[in-house]
Design a protein that fits this description.
118 residues, mainly alpha, 3 helices, 78% helix
Length: 118
């Protein structure tokens, strides 16, 4: 599967070659048109790609934090659930909600920032 980052990386080299007057197919390219295209990409699209890259890096950090917090939560919820399940006098609603919270924490641990919070 192609990513924005890999597509951007693969696009830059042919554009830079085109500025030098060589196209990827070996044919000669119009250096002025190629330079204008490269300038547009470098001045307008490259900053947008940088913003996307920064945001995705932040999402990666957020995912790691969410996974860590979910792991901490599971260390608390799983024993509570096992204890509640063993306690015959406890309402099934409590057991069901603890089981639900544990399941959702496992989703967060697995999926990180891709999990829907609300």
């Amino acid at each position: 599967m192609s990513t924005l980052s890999s597509a951007w990386s693969r696009l830059k080299a042919p554009l830079e070659a085109a500025v030098k007057g060589k196209s990827g197919t070996g044919a000669s390219a119009d250096a002025k048109k190629s330079a204008a295209a490269l300038h547009t990409f470098e001045t307008q699209i490259a900053p947008v790609m940088k913003k996307l890259d920064d945001a995705l890096q932040e999402r990666t950090k957020l995912s790691a934090k969410l996974r860590s917090a979910a792991e901490e939560g599971l260390k608390l919820v799983d024993p509570m659930y096992k204890q509640a399940k063993a306690d015959k006098s406890l309402d099934d609603e409590v057991k069901d909600r603890l089981d639900e919270v544990g399941s959702l924490l496992r989703e967060v641990r697995r999926d990180g920032a891709q999990v829907q919070w609300d």
